[in-house]
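Hi F.,

I've been meaning to write this up properly since the lab meeting, where we talked about keeping a consistent format for the predictions we share between groups. The idea is simple: the sequence comes first, exactly as it goes in, then the C-alpha cells exactly as they come out, then a line or two of notes. No screenshots and no reformatting. I'm using this chain as the first example so we have something concrete to point to.
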Amino acid sequence: QVQLVESGGGVVQAGGSLTLSCAASGHTFSTNTNVWFAWFRQAPGKAREFVARLHGSTGITSYADSVKGRFTISTNGDHNTLSLQMNSLMPEDTAVYSCASQSSIKPRATQPGAYDYWGQGTQVTVSS
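Output, unedited:
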C-alpha cells in the first residue's frame, strides 16, 4: 500500500523560507522510473493548482510561473523523500501543499488527474 506523508509546513513571514518533505512508504521517488513526481497546492476557496514536478528517470523539472526561481523540487539520495524548497515566500503562497506521484506515466502531468498517489497535505501560511 502506497502512503505519502508531507511535513515541514508552518507559519513564516513574507520573504522567509520553508522546506517541505514528502516521505513515501510502499513507493519510491526513484530516479529509474519513467513517471512524474509533483507538488500541488490549494488555497481556501480555490482549485488545486500545480506547483512543481520532477521526472524520475530524466531529472527534468518544471514549475508554475508563480513560483519559478523561488521554489526547487528534488529527491534525496535514498529516493524515499520528495522535497520542495521554498524561498522568498509571499502571502499568496499560503495554501495546503500536497505531494503526488504517478504509478505509470500519464500525459498532462501538471494536472491533478494525472497523479495516482497523494499525501494528505501540509499547511503553509505566509504572513505579511
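Notes:
The first strand starts at residue 3 and ends at 7.
Residues 4 and 119 are 5 Å apart (CA to CA).

If this format works for you, I'll send the rest the same way.

G.
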